[in-house]
Amino acid sequence: MDACDETRRDPPAGDETLATPIPFVRRLAASEAFTALFKEGMALVEDTAAYLDGPGREESRRLSRPVAIAYASESMRLTTRLMQVASWLLLQRAVNEGELTSAQAMSEKHRVRLVDQGISCCADLFEALPPTLKDFALKSLRLQARVAYLDRSISAADDFAPPPRISAVAVQVERLRQAFTH
Questions:
Q1: Is 152 a domain residue?
Q2: What share of the chain is helix, strand, coil (3-state, %, to 5)?
Q3: Coil, helix or strand at residue 29
Q4: How many domains would you assign to the chain?
């Protein structure tokens, strides 16, 4: 028997807890990696808002009509994308901090649509947009893809989670309680 065979042993009879899969994605969603993702997402929201309300507004006034229309469309899509990502991040943080249960977050999640939105205009018009707007758009797409992947992973883990086990001790305590109350 080699070292690999050692790790493949079945759990001892009656010890199903060793056979229960560990939900790593839930741990990831509550880890330092999530904290970094949260900070990155919120910083992107703030930086984008500051740009669109300041320098971006000035830049958009100097654009030709077709590029200005593409700018308006892309900035709306960018804002929508970032608000959806921020909403998801805030929901997940609330779960991580115990402010919401996973079930409560799932009931709120129907309002958050992590729809894969591409760039709103053709490649030629996108290239004509101000570099800062293009940078924010591309960063937001990457962030959205990472958040959507994490969301799908959490949903898949929840779908395949084993049903909650009933504690053998709790069953015996309940039998004792029933025996003495009748």
A1: yes
A2: 75, 0, 25
A3: helix
A4: 1
